[in-house]
Request: fold
Amino acid sequence: MPEQTHASRAPGVTFIFKKALISALVALVLFSLMIGIRTEAGPSGQLIYWTRFGDLASMVAIVFGGSIIVELLRQWLGPADTIRIVPQRLQQGLAIAGRLVAPLLLIFTFLVPVIFYDQRYILDLGILVLTYVMLGWGLNVVVGLAGLLDLGYVAFYAVGAYSYALLATNFGLSFWVCLPLAGILAAFWGMLLGFPVLRLRGDYLAIVTLAFGEIIRLVIINWQSLTGGPNGVSGIPRPTLFGIPLTPADDGLAARLGIEFSPTHRIVFLFYIILAMALLTNWVTIRLRRLPIGRAWEALREDEVACRALGINTTTTKLTAFATGAMFGGFAGAFFATRQGFISPESFTFQESALVLAIVVLGGMGSQLGVALAALTMIGGFELFRGFDQYRMLVFGVAMVLLMIWRPRGLIGHRAPTVFLKRAQAISSDLVKEGHG
Amino acid sequence: MSTENILFVDHLTMRFGGIVAVHDLSLTAERRKITALIGPNGAGKTTVFNCITGFYRPSGGTMRLTHDDGREVRLERLNDFRIAKQAKVARTFQNIRLFPGMTALENLMVAQHNALMLASGLTFLGLIGAPSWRSAEKRAIDQAKFWLDRIGLFDRADDAAGNLPYGDQRRLEIARAMCTEPALLCLDEPAAGLNARESAELSALLLAIRSQHGTSILLIEHDMSVVMEISDHVVVMDYGVKIAEGTPQEVRDDPKVIAAYLGADEQEAIAVMESGT
Reply:
């Protein structure tokens, strides 16, 4: 009986009670000013305030009760007990289901434009989710594989977007010519960032990358003659299908195929472009993991000193990780520019970096499927709650806390080996290092 | 003589601020022989190791390594990873430094990084799955399999290195160093924490590495039974200077060594030295 197994391990009632009491006390201190006292400017400008002790009491009570529930749930569903409670057959079923998730998700993604052809909103959301999946996979190379904490990833997204926007509007180059150029330029900037931060680790690395992201944004805002400053770049050309534009014009795709023009054609086209780009990112990353460079990245995350003792050039290894991650960011940026048709520095704030990093961390660092699932939940879930505008952040916060409790290493925390003799065994997240610089 | 010795350390000095960890130390390591570096705690043995393997840049002195083909490498001029890559000096660590989240096999594959990097055409050939890369990878796996078999971990190849028992981790670290195909293998206390049976296995492994692979070994060790059994030459350090050297037998009978090891208490020193026989 499961009840008996955890009853023997469970800490006593007093422990739970004490913990709940402490949480309630913290909540009381925090909420007493935020909720307990309401201030407002009066009719003649003076400050008036009134107290809301009833609301305060209910909030503290919620925290108290919630803390007890969380603690109880934690004992019943905690990671240590999962294996014991969940029956063997269910576990096997889950394992099979787990293997099917990725292919099913892929098939579904391919069919999205077919199923939701009439629903522009879903298609747009799908494009958005896929963009973040690609960004997440790109950052995963740097953070998940090489273990280098990068808080300025949006800089490469911006470099890619502006590379395409400026090359296309100034020189009239097409999207397909600019796409590799945007990737190369972003990779170049990744290397430039890489050099000064090679000697930094952990917190210091994070701060410098954060600053780098801001520097790129500030340069874009202030270099008005080139980038148009805060006004951004508009009139960015749309992508073409081998030179055939997707417009209602006479030489457009619809006219050539002899079908009626619909603006949805372009959306579907964009959907498949970003899907192909994301899958390319995924394929390259999976390939790289099995190549010496990918193994060196992971070894670097595990133990840098040992890498040096084995004759691995840690400098170039780190630089290639930065450059590879940045290149995918640049590709995604170029796509973003061609999809929007207009870009401005506002799209490349720190919040974007934080969001992409959150996707990678929530997904489980290093796990491709985990990152995709996290992007789907974060971006898709965020949109789902658009109706409940006020509670969106609240739900988001609660979800984060729950995830921290049950899945501290992300949705898919274990690591799959890159090579095996007999059987590929998943490696527990307890053994895998997060990297420290 | 130059072809007889693989490593010449001349007048090596290492200072950390005002502290002189190693002072004017000269030693040689013979080719295809096992040279042991022993001494009490804090004698500066690991500092010498860190200088030889490029983790420290020595304050003074020279270190020359001559390869089988007569090529001579000045170790103090190389740094960091280049010692392992160009001079072919591999090392293990006092506190084991495996890649715990990677499997035993992966650990051995990482060790072959430089050779595989070339074979994969700096990743580009590998990315498109060129046949030359595939065969190179297969050879690397065979090499790893050979060493896994050698250290008796073939059945645990797919287990995470961090999950292996302590003694297995020690042997895996040695196998990983050997996968870099070193000319000189530096082992920092390989027998630390091993039980008597594991120590005996380790001795056998090191002797086999020396005789079958022709790798020269330099080791730091506290376990006198291992040192006395396998060493061809022993160098004794104390307070950063060399106080004695010679065959295990000579060193064991040296009164200076006995005094250094246990200060004034000669009886106890003799007891320790005797335990090694």
Q: What stands out?
A: Chain B touches chain A through 45 residues (CB under 8 Å). The mean pLDDT of chain B is 86. The longest strand of chain B covers residues 5-16. The radius of gyration of chain B is 19 Å.
